[in-house]
Amino acid sequence: MNTKHLKYAIEVERTCSISQAAENLFMGQPTLSKVMKELEDSLGYAIFERTSKGVTPTQKGLEFLSYARNILLQVEKMEALAESANTNTQNFSISIPRASYITEAITRFVADLDESKGINVNVHETNSIQVINNITDGSFHLGIIRYETEYENYFFDYLTEKQLCYEPIWEFEHLALMSAGHPLAQCEKVEYKELREYTEISYGDTAIPYLMQSNNSKMNYSSKNSKHIYIYDWSSQYDILSSIPTTYMWVSPIPDKWLSRYNLIQRKCKASGHRFKDMFIYSKDYKFTELERRFIDKLSEAKNDVSFKEYK
After folding, report:
1. Where are the domains of the chain?
2. Which of 2, 45, 95, 244 is deepest in the core (most CB within 10 A)?
């Protein structure tokens, strides 16, 4: 048994599928199945069993996976000792949702780093479920998740199950982002029923804990709309919105410089279920580094720049 085997088992647990885990790990399904069988044989008990919900942990498997996560976390901490010993390198990593004010905070944070020292910054933009998994498996120590307030209890239960701590950053109402040339751009008040006549852009990989396991269809936070474009790359939204003026997207408030750069506007629009929260998440007993606290200050600044603005 080695740490790779522990990571493989955790990935199987996360995906509830040997084939999906193998794909995510860039290996063949037969190879992963063989490794899991050898691991179970060496332990003397089954880690997983096949159920109607897919591949799920047995009772002993749950205990094993809990120990595995703790072992990997300790390994990460030991590896971090070598990094922290090198005071000439500024190390920072974070897993985040796709949000412009967070990206702005990262830009400000990096701009303030000491250029005379080494810089090692790792930023992973993804959906909230993957952020949680990144913290759980030790890939990242600090993350930010975003969820619709309607599903808050699902996320809280999931975070508790994964033994993660969480702290609120901000609760906000989604705004409609569109081109300055959009047919509704000059309206003093944008009505939800009018907006639905146009093509909505949203991320295609959003999911809700527990609900995602019982429903394989897309679990999008956005409204039901017959005209829809699903994207997975953060920059794609700006290209589409600025090039096709009949599209729109639900977003958190965006810094003015981003709006100006892409000739976009954002408007209030009353729509059911469009209140969201952003939360910091991290492992229990994790201590923020000096650089991470500096980033948190930059994040607060970037958030305040957009949260205190008046929107039409």
Report:
1. 3-78, 90-312
2. 95
Please say whether the beta carbons of 3 and 137 come within 8 A.
Answer: no
The CATH class that applies to domain 90-312 reads alpha beta
DSSP code per residue over 184-205: TTT-SS--HHHHTTSEEEEETT
Separation of CA 95 from chain center: 6
Radius of gyration of the chain (CA): 22
- Give, to the nearest 10 degrees, the angle between helix 3-15 and helix 59-85: 120
Fold of 3-78: Arc Repressor Mutant, subunit A (1.10.10)
User: In sequence order, which residues have a C-beta less than 8 Å from that of residue 77 and are 6 or more positions away?
Assistant: none
Tokens 């981003």 -> residue = 258
Beta strands, E only, the chain: 48-51, 54-57, 89-96, 118-125, 142-148, 164-173, 175-179, 199-203, 228-231, 247-251, 264-267, 275-283
DSSP letter assigned to residue 149? G
Length reported for the chain: 312
Q: Tell how strand 275-283 and strand 164-173 pair up.
A: antiparallel
CA–CA separation, 161 and 48 (whole Å): 18
Q: What contacts 256, CB < 8 A, 6 or more positions away?
A: none
Structure confidence at residue 226 as a pLDDT band (50, 70, 90): confident
Stated pTM of the model: 0.71
C-beta separation of 99 from 278 below 8 A:
yes
pLDDT digits over 174-225, tens only?
A: 899 999 999 999 887 788 888 889 999 988 888 888 775 444 444 444 445 6
Structure tokens given for 74:
């300790």
- b/e code 55-86 from CB counts within 10 Å (16+ = b): bbbeeebeebbeebbeebbeebeeeeeeeeee
CA atoms within 13 A on the CB side of 305: 17
